[in-house]
From TrEMBL:
Residues 52-150 form the Glycosyl hydrolase family 63 N-terminal domain. It is a single-pass type II membrane protein. It is found in: Endoplasmic reticulum membrane. Residues 1-22 form the signal peptide. This is Mannosyl-oligosaccharide glucosidase. Its EC number is 3.2.1.106. One of its GO terms (molecular function) is Glc3Man9GlcNAc2 oligosaccharide glucosidase activity. One of its GO terms (biological process) is oligosaccharide metabolic process. It is an enzyme of class 3 (hydrolase). Pfam families: Glyco_hydro_63N. Cleaves the distal alpha 1,2-linked glucose residue from the Glc(3)Man(9)GlcNAc(2) oligosaccharide precursor.
């Protein structure tokens, strides 16, 4: 049986939060943009600096994701299937319920390289990201990702 006081408290709380948010939405909002250029449009963020940051690990909330800094970029990432409790689980997006004992970058300079370790229930994935700019490279340089998998017996 539900505790009637707890249920009434929840109903009152939800009702009060709805009333407060409705009052906020009635207030007029004024947004005035700053009359200055965007920081990314300043000269120090152009040219070689901008090109060096074109490709990178710019995909949040995934275990590994690589993309360019353009709206319709090619997207590359890591996805694998893990077995837990005799069920298959797809891994791609970082979720707390995935229950990985370790994941994240152990080294990363934000520009040219990164190294990370992911430990998923008896399986260790090691990833490396490396980017270089040589003669003949395309805009933003050339990049590669290496994935090593070790299964604990």
């Amino acid at each position: 049986m539900f505790n009637i006081k707890a249920v009434l408290s929840i109903v009152v709380f939800l009702n009060m939060s709805h009333v407060d948010s409705a009052a906020e939405h009635r207030l007029p909002r004024v947004v005035t943009p700053l009359p200055a250029p965007k920081i990314t449009d300043l000269p120090q963020f152009q040219g070689e600096h901008k090109e060096s940051l074109y490709w990178g690990t710019y995909r949040p909330q995934v275990y590994l994701g690589v993309r360019a800094r353009t709206p319709k970029s090619l997207i590359a990432g890591l996805m694998w299937i893990a077995v837990k409790d005799s069920k298959y689980h797809l891994r791609h997006v970082c979720k707390h319920e995935d229950d990985l004992s370790t994941y994240g970058w152990t080294m990363h300079n934000g520009r040219d390289f990164g190294h990370q370790v992911l430990v998923d229930h008896g399986m260790t994935l090691t990833t490396g990201f490396l980017k270089s700019k040589e003669e003949g490279s395309g805009y933003g340089g050339d990049w590669t990702v290496r994935v090593c998998v070790q299964v604990d017996q």
